[in-house]
Design goal:
single chain, about 350 residues, alpha/beta, 10 helices, globular
Length: about 350
């Protein structure tokens, strides 16, 4: 159970448009994560959130360092996470846990700085995925200021522009795999560089490019948005990049909803960051955007039901066709979910 369950119960909303099909394009499953609002977040835990009222028909599991193998070559240990996610997916696909197809697509990880040694790991990942493996995330979130957390893998500065990394990255297209880009807004120039160097590889930008709101950015909301906007405008010109709409309820984004006496409503969430969503959709178009929950990470700030209500309010004036793309069809297409 979440450590903030009692707090989350302080804001209850009726589910909006409960029949609208949704593919949650980004979530995690794990155990033994003591630093998270959910130390254990396995299939049953996730389903408690997805069954809160919205019509979640399928989901995409994204690597999070869960269940790596304890032994064997370091490069091959991430295969354990894919085996774990595929096991959760197999349980869900049995039908015994309801209609939601959890982890219908799986994005794992590999150390892309291994260069030409990457293919053997990719082959093992694909085999472990049981037909569900779709892409790789090798996170790059880094900042020189110690008040801003680097990714758990402690990436070096400029990872995405590293020669060895690019050598490994070059193999993704051969296997038909996407690349999940997780960086801060101060690093978006690296994603632009990568997208231009490898136009044949589909890059999925996580969490709207990670606009920062802590540390030196805690009182710089306008400046951050302008810097982010300039980079996103340039990135949107790269046809091989799509972006996820979500992931802005983390502590690092600086909205501080988790510090409120009661959880934010869906209106509160939009008041804080609707301009990021609206500008991203304007830049990339509805065919290149897809909604994500980023649960249980974003659960520190809001409930699953409230988050998706916010997304639905954001798009209330959109056509049925555009809503279908943003909430379901784009994710199904990008991650090849049948």
């Amino acid at each position: 159970m979440a450590t903030n369950d009692a707090w989350l119960a302080g804001t209850i909303e009726a589910t909006l448009d409960p029949k609208l099909p949704i593919c949650d394009a980004h979530h995690h499953l794990w155990n033994f994560r003591a630093d998270s609002v959910e130390e254990c977040y396995l299939l049953d835990d996730f389903l408690r959130d997805t069954s809160s009222g919205h019509n979640i028909v399928s989901t995409v599991f994204i690597e999070c360092g869960a269940m790596f193998k304890a032994n064997g070559p370091t490069s091959m240990r991430p295969i354990g996470e894919t085996e774990f996610a595929n096991g959760m997916a197999a349980m869900s696909a049995s039908g015994h846990y309801g209609n939601t197809r959890v982890a219908a697509a799986i994005v794992g990880t590999v150390d892309l700085t291994l260069g030409d040694a990457v293919p053997i790991v990719l082959e093992a990942q694909i085999a472990a995925g049981g037909g569900r493996f779709r892409g790789i995330r090798h996170a790059a979130t880094w900042h020189e200021d110690s008040r801003i957390p680097n990714h758990r893998t402690d990436p070096p500065q400029g990872l995405l522009m590293n020669k060895a990394f690019r050598s490994g990255f070059a193999h993704l297209a051969t296997f038909g795999l996407t690349f999940e880009a997780w960086c801060y807004h101060t690093q978006l120039h690296e994603v632009i560089y990568l997208a231009r160097q490898f136009p044949e590889t589909l890059i999925v930008l996580d969490h709207l490019g990670g606009p920062l709101g802590v540390g030196p950015y805690s009182d710089q909301a306008t400046a951050v948005f302008l810097e982010w906007d300039r980079a996103m405008t340039e990135l949107a010109a790269c046809d091989n990049v799509v972006t996820k709409l979500g992931g802005l309820a983390m502590e690092v984004n600086g909205f501080n909803w988790h510090r409120l006496p009661a959880p934010p409503t869906s209106d509160d969430l939009l008041k804080g960051c609707a301009h990021y969503y609206e500008r991203t959709i304007e830049l990339f178009g509805v065919d290149r955007c897809l909604f994500e929950s980023n649960f249980p990470v974003d659960k520190i700030s809001c409930s699953y039901n409230t988050l998706w209500n916010a997304f639905k309010k954001l798009t209330k004036d959109y056509s049925a066709s555009d809503k279908a793309k943003l909430f379901h069809d784009n994710a199904q297409r990008i991650y090849r979910i049948a």
